[in-house]
Amino acid sequence: MSDRTRVNERIRAREIRVIDEDGAQLGVMQPFEAMKLARERGLDLVEISPTAEPPVCKITDYGKYQYQQNKKAHEQRKSSRGSQLKEVKFRPNTAEHDYQVRKNQIIRFLGDGHKVRAMIFHRGREMAHQEVGRAKMDRLLVEIGDQGQIETMPRMEGNVLVALLAPRKGSTASRSAGQAASGAQHAQ
Asked: Which of 99, 116, 130, 164 has the most CB atoms less than 10 A away?
């Protein structure tokens, strides 16, 4: 039994409002009367709203009630997951095809509603020519412009050039899918 939900004899209020298994109100009565009704039907008396005045109890199967509560909680957790932060990493000398693949990943992530952190790593001598990495980042931001919005402008953090992109408010996955289909037609 759950610690929070009181069932049958654990209900301690003097008077309770009772609802039957079909959702019809049976009125305000004492717990022992409601228990008698529940037992006649082969069900349990479950306290649904303990803070109400008087507390609300329902005549139902406790196992079924627990299952429904767990299902509701799971749905709430599932819908609250929302967006994640995805990271896509580049180098200043990333080849053209690899660049296109990563750019398409960013577009897909933005279409799915995720935020994206685009990162260009500089190593060794590449730090002396940061303009190469900055040019690649500027090109990326221009090409992604209509799919996402720039949340933080590109800036150097140590040896990494970082920009944070967020999905546009009006953009949806269906719109990006339509653009991908039109791109496939142009290729033919």
From this structure: 116
